[in-house]
Design goal:
With 121 residues, this protein is α/β, with parallel strands linked by helices. Helix content is 40%, strand content 22%.
């Protein structure tokens, strides 16, 4: 499974660099497209076939209420939101996605410290 990700601006730079240095195919909105709207992030996701990684619930509204179609979305709900905690939960989430062989295409995945839920769109 080739996993390609687009990290929202709320993902710390240190998390982006750690994932990139670990071999993940990641692009950071902060690095490439700072300040763009969520709608533009969805367009980039779809065109580049990259799953959006975010801490922002707004993507759920855009996907399910506004019927926008990114490639995929993974929403992480993490408290507290320290870079170390975010990185740990993201890695755990990626491992679970691989183990369950979940498709990222048109899938909205919610992950917190205890739960992984997915819903097709």
């Amino acid at each position: 499974m080739n996993l390609k990700f687009l990290l929202d601006e709320n993902i710390p730079q240190s998390v982006y660099l750690s994932l990139k240095n670990s071999g993940y195919d990641v692009i950071s909105i902060c690095e490439k497209f700072r300040g763009i709207s969520d709608k533009k992030i969805i367009k980039i996701s779809r065109e580049s076939k990259r799953t959006i990684i975010t801490l922002d619930k707004d993507f759920g509204y855009l996907v399910f209420n506004r019927k926008m179609k990114p490639f995929g979305v993974i929403l992480f709900r993490i408290h507290p939101q320290s870079p170390q905690k975010i990185l740990s939960i993201i890695r755990m989430g990626f491992k679970t996605i691989r183990e369950r062989k979940l498709s990222l295409l048109h899938n909205y995945i919610f992950i917190d410290e205890k739960t992984l839920k997915s819903r097709q769109f």
